[in-house]
Write a structure and sequence with these properties.
Blueprint (H helix, E strand, L loop, with lengths): L1 E16 L1 E6 L9 E11 L4 E6 L5 E7 L3 E14 L13 H9 L23 H8 L8 H15 L1 E2 L10 H7 L1 E2 L1 H14 L4 E8 L17 E7 L6 E5 L4 E2 L4 E7 L8 E6 L4 E11 L2
Parallel strand pairs: 7-8
Antiparallel strand pairs: 1-6, 1-15, 2-5, 2-14, 3-6, 4-5, 9-10, 9-13, 10-11, 11-12
């Protein structure tokens, strides 16, 4: 499938901003079942400087310097991506989760795809005893890692309510878990924390969902903005598998990967600093359209 993606981020400031330095992670990845065909980012006001690099996780990161005084900032990202991936059957056999845990901790590579880098707590995903206990109910002894992760994903979808007003980016994981309300970012963080609490490698994935579902299928939660899901290392043979706890589905062709990290702080599409005062208003609009 080929998708056209438009992702527009706008900031409106109450008073003029004299200086801004931003980091943009808006270029979809190539690999993991998808290929980037084209990508452009238009920024107004025009930056004085733009530089690009790949971060540790392989995400294309553009650093932008704006020295023109402004009260509005508009970042218009447009991409075309080809996606072709197939999720494993939900009943497919997989290694016992204990062996996956042990092998991950014995990994000798420290590269971005090595499972050991996604086993430990990160800044937004602490390992909490109640969350680990919640996850352990899906992983009785000798349970296949795929079956356990699918069960955990299903329980999060059943036990937590999708509520865009319940949390903000800074809401602690402990509070999300106790309230059982939140959005895709929160559900991904909960699932990752539970898996890491058991010693299983889990990565945070940011990306997009197709806006218009196939005929006869329900519209997926989170399709109006950037989406988040989880990638779980299921052993050397199966590798990394995508799980979407917000929608209780394995990741296939409706998902477009933008960035990979340990948690949201590694993959924020736009962040940075400004010199200014008073309040600001953020707007985000995303369209993901299938190219006929």
């Amino acid at each position: 499938m080929i998708y056209d993606i438009r992702h527009v981020t706008t900031y409106a400031y109450e008073s003029p901003v004299s200086f801004a330095r931003c980091s943009l992670r808006l270029e979809p990845r190539s690999g993991d079942g998808q290929q980037l065909l084209s990508h452009t980012v238009d920024i107004r006001p025009r930056p004085a400087e733009r530089t690009a690099r790949r971060d540790f996780f392989g995400t294309h990161t553009e650093n932008v310097l704006i020295e023109t005084a402004h009260r509005n900032l508009r970042i218009d990202s447009r991409s075309r991506v080809s996606v072709s991936r197939q999720a494993p059957d939900r009943a497919a056999p997989s290694p016992p989760w204990e062996s996956v845990r042990d092998i991950a901790l014995e990994a000798t590579s420290l590269g971005p795809s090595s499972p050991v880098g996604y086993v430990f707590a990160s800044s937004l995903v602490p390992v909490l005893r109640p969350v680990s206990a919640y996850a352990s109910a899906s992983f009785p002894p000798a349970t296949g890692v795929l079956a356990g992760a699918i069960d955990l994903m299903h329980r999060i979808r059943s036990d937590f309510k999708y509520d865009p007003k319940a949390t903000v980016i800074s809401t602690p994981l402990k509070e999300v878990f106790e309230k059982r309300h939140g959005v895709c970012q929160d559900f991904a963080h909960v699932m990752i924390a539970g898996l890491r609490g058991l010693g299983l490698p889990a990565a945070y994935i940011s990306g997009y969902l197709r806006t218009i579902p196939p005929p006869g299928q329900p519209r997926l939660q989170g399709a109006d903005a950037t989406h988040a899901w989880v990638s779980v290392w299921c052993g050397a043979e199966m590798g990394w598998i995508g799980f979407d706890p917000t929608n209780d589905i394995l990741v296939e062709n409706d998902h477009i990967i933008l960035a990979v990290g340990r948690d949201f702080s590694d993959v924020s599409p736009v962040d940075g600093i400004i010199v200014g005062s008073r309040k600001q208003k953020l707007g985000v609009a995303v369209d993901v359209l299938l190219v006929e």
